[in-house]
Amino acid sequence: MASLSELPALRNYSKPFGIRFLEYIKKGKLSYKTHQAIVLIVTFLAYTCYHATRKTTSIVKSALDPQSPDVGLKFPWRMTYLSSPAEKKRFYWVLGDGWAPFNGSDGSALLGELDVAFLAVYALGMYFSGHLGDRMNLRVFLTVGMVGTGLFTSLFGVGYWTKIHSFYYFLIVQMIAGLFQSTGWPSVVAVVGNWFGKKKRGLIMGIWNAHTSVGNIAGSLIASALLSYGWGWSFVVPGLLIAFVGLLVFLFLPVSPESVGADKEEDEVGSPRKIGEGVTEPLLGSDAEIKETAVGFIEAWKIPGVAPFAFCLFFAKLVAYTFLYWLPYYISHTAIEGKYLSSETAGNLSTFFDIGGVLGGILAGHISDRLDARAITAATFMYCAIPALYFYRTYGHISLVMNIALMFICGMFVNGPYALITTAVSADLGTHSSLRGNSKALATVTAIIDGTGSVGAAIGPLLTGYISAKSWGAVFTMLMGAALVAGLLLTRLLVAEVVARISESRSQAEGSQSTSQDEEVGV
């Protein structure tokens, strides 16, 4: 009896301080839906900050290497289009001759190496982060990752004021920042997966996943606005911001219903216990968690669907991250209506790709929910990305309006499947029926899928740094090929979903036919 009486106190002690403070103000327990709202808001802000800090490098590239005579197109950077002579004078003063060692003839290659170093460590760290995330308090784990990310993002910018010109300083700082960044995605997806069942998961996570594009947009706007004060501020301000939000995560994020004593049945009476093939809607059982053991790395790879989606994401993220790291650079080096845009203007313009990505993520999630077909949706979007990429490369230079419209469409088709696979698909597979209700696989499965995708994310920007020196057309050919392979990798799952839909339609037709025959007999 004593142990039972101690249980409420134990649960209250595990609640984040912010949750206890809100309950103190309310003078009562928070509802399950209130906890869900807090989870969505806090994790949305958290990963928005992750992407905002990740985006700054692509904006600052043109300040570090403003000349870039050997990158893709043969024309002098000084032909940059600016709105007024005063702005032109100020802009040149800010950029100067770039920043050693990135302003040499191999500047673009060095910047590409920074990207691949960051993403390689990020991808490797992702596997370990998922493994640790299923074994640790995700709230503490995520907080440490965000504060560490903020610290090392800021240290990159500190090099501006301390006059650091060592390539290895920037390389090491980027690698450690990538390691801390790897804590984010497995953690936020696992927490959201703990609170939301499979019903409407694609739509909910599609909307929630807008944090990726919102973070890219915020990072672009902040970094671009601060460039005129010195490129160091473009790193320090986002770094301080993510550290601050990390503290909010520590204070307010409820990791799971059990950690705060929330009872789903009290708030969602009559909600279906299972959907599909044995996937439990409340992803976590009430008392089973105490006895559950985390799923091993190899065991997680064997879950049906994990490997095809992981390798599909490899090529999907190759395309998405090439745009993430090189789109502002490409825009500033491409004549639009015969004029060249400044790096600040190019950074702002690139946000339309991310705005398209918001719509693409929501559409992909909603369509996959309606069709109950994740593979069909993801593959279709990847195939549609191929002509979108071709048209953007071929016709994007005609006018600013054409560039924005085609960029928006590219963002929609490229980021749609990327968002779907890294959210709803990962959560689905992390609660697959083969796990027999074990909830301790969400972070591991998410890490495997996104970690494999991050390897592609590292390779894409690296190859672009070298290929663009010869031809941007070759870069777009690489991206179109990657989109094709990504779609083809889902062929087996796509066929299985089509067969399942056909069988379901036939059974429904037979059922309605037999019902009508019974009615005729009764008459």
Q: How would you characterize the overall build of this protein?
A:
Residues 39-499 form the Major facilitator superfamily (MFS) profile domain. It is found in: Membrane. Belongs to the major facilitator superfamily. Organophosphate:Pi antiporter (OPA) (TC 2.A.1.4) family. The chain crosses the membrane at residues 37-53, 109-128, 140-161, 167-196, 208-229, 235-255, 306-327, 347-368, 375-392, 398-421, 473-495. The chain has 523 residues and is mainly alpha-helical. Helix content is 74%, strand content 2%. It has 22 helices and 4 strands. Strand 2 (274-275) and strand 3 (279-280) form a beta hairpin. It is globular and about 80 Å long.
* Uncertain residue segments: 1-13, 68-95, 265-291
Average pLDDT for all residues: 80
- The first-to-last residue Cα distance is 63 Å
Please write the string of helix (H) and strand (E) elements: HHHEHHHHHHHHHHEEHHEHHHHHHH
Measured as a percent range, the helix fraction is over 70%
Number of strands: 4
- Describe the main β-sheet briefly: 2 strands, parallel
Structural classification: mainly alpha
Q: How many helices does DSSP assign? A: 22
SS strand fraction: under 5%
Radius of gyration, taken over Cα atoms and rounded to an integer in Å: 24 Å
> Which shape, going by the Cα principal axes?
globular
Strand order of the largest sheet: 1-4
Summarize the entry for a quick read.
The chain is mainly alpha-helical and 523 residues long.
